[in-house]
Amino acid sequence: MNELVEILKENQAEMLETLKQIVEKESPTRDKELADELAIFIAELFEELTSGKSSIIQNELFGNHVRGEFGHGDEQILLLAHYDTVWQKGDILEKIPFKTEGDIAYGPGVFDMKGGIVQGLYALWALKETNAQLNKKVVFLCTSDEELGSPSSQKLIEEEAKKSKYVLVLEPAISRQGALKTARKGVGIFKLNVKGRAAHAGVEPEKGISAILELSKQVTYLHELTDYSKGTTVNVGKITGGTTVNVIAAEAEADIDLRVKTKAEFDRIIPIIKNLKPSTTGVEVSVAGGINRPPFERTDQVISLFNMAKKVAQENLGFKLEEKETGGGSDGNFTAPFAPTLDGLGAVGDGAHALNEHIIISQMPKRSALLALLIKELAIYQ
Asked: What's the pTM value of the predicted model, to 2 decimals?
């Protein structure tokens, strides 16, 4: 057995204990105090495990970000993670306490994506312990606001991606299948606002123009823009409007989610959404918003990166690695335009954002070893 693989398997219990510590340090995206505490813990853990240097990047709105450097070299490989979760303070005790049952570990954020953080840190630890010779440095970037769309970290992520030869994203693999993600849809978010004219619904309804009626027509049209053959979906996920039941609604609005596979499809469909026209005389329609995350497209470079990981898994770990695309976005969407990106290198499990969120414990050292061996290959690959 490869020495690197062996020491990670021998340290599975330690990895699990570290995971427990990180999960029990709750980190809701909007709770800066809790998030900052975990950021310090991760930075200190990075230095302890890798003997590398870490720094805390101050952030006024959300938790501080963590940046670590491992090894040396003029070129860099970027390991990308986030430590914030959708869970709220107290959920660890009230809804989903950290626990293990057989080969399964449960807990808030254990799958998305604290398991990936642990696997990433221990991959670097294993490279250090086996005296791996790398000619590229590894930058470990762990951000605090991915679950909100990375409003404060996007620029930082893009800057690091521009300096990187490769980007490896520690988001979870695709459920228990363990497939890596070689494509993610781009995300657009829009708000549609409709203005009509109020009137008494019983006394003089003919003097009113219903914004809700107009909105219903616009929603129907928007959903008809969905084209599964192109991988394009449009979803109106939230609507509000009106004041009370006996008043013709003067205003209504809707939140729109757009998903596409390619930049070309963004270029085609965004102008359609942004230039919606009213179907009723006297109504005003306006749309605000735009691209939230660019598409992460399956390029030849991405395929090459996946094939390298697939070969590493087969030859050193004895399993066949699969690839898939997903409609969900990650920070990998931000890096893909700048450097070959491979996503889903984190935990194997299921239930992201749900009460059954969990990972498979025995997969932790295997996936950590996969990451370490891939880094080792990429460090000498030109």
From this structure: 0.92
